[in-house]
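As a warm-up, study this chain.
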Amino acid sequence: MAAFTGRTGGTSAAPFATLNLALRVEDDLRRVLANRRRVATVLGLAGLPWALARQVHGATVLHVRAGSAGQGPPEGKPTVGEADGLVTADPGVVLAVLTADCAPVLLADPGAGVVGAVHAGWRGLAAGVVEAGVAAMAELGADPGAVVGLVGPAVGGCCYEVGPEVREAVGGRYPAALATTRDGRPALDPAAGAAQALERAGAGQVRVAGECTIDLEERFFSHRRDQGRTGRQAGLIALVPGGGR
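Now compare it with the structure written out below.
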């Protein structure tokens, strides 16, 4: 199971309306947990624990075991550590990354039964977090050539104006990420950079949602558009018990 959420269908009030899944943005705790349970139910994941990391815009990837993520529904469990990538070969645990402009990247080798989730902002891309995610999956038995990489909604090159240092940090490594805004200003396309990173890591299939979080205000949260006060959507992936490989 792999999915990207949007901002609609939840219980949170503005400015987190409505399907905010983050606990650390000053939203009402009860509403966030209700939103998480709603997502779990819709995706057929009710009762499975969620594993989330404290995301720090780096390249650390953690191996997650089912027992380390807590038990029961996705309540406000502690994070599994400080990282921007999670991988597992254990059925029954949901890997989740939270975003509001950064690119969520979901990884799966169905044959090997290994999955991963990566949070790729510009700093993480420059640090190699996407390649680190694929390498961590290989440590668990995945074949990079069999990995399917899904790049979810993220801020697009149409809207993501950046300065020369940021542009060089990412574009110097991933030229595909270089972009120009609609009004002709230097920009980055994190999703395109993540896709190029997946290709360089040897991923067999790469699919990109191609949806800009700034542009699509009714569908997605955006940290930049909403000046930092907003919710978070998620990229979620899991090996479902009894679902086969």
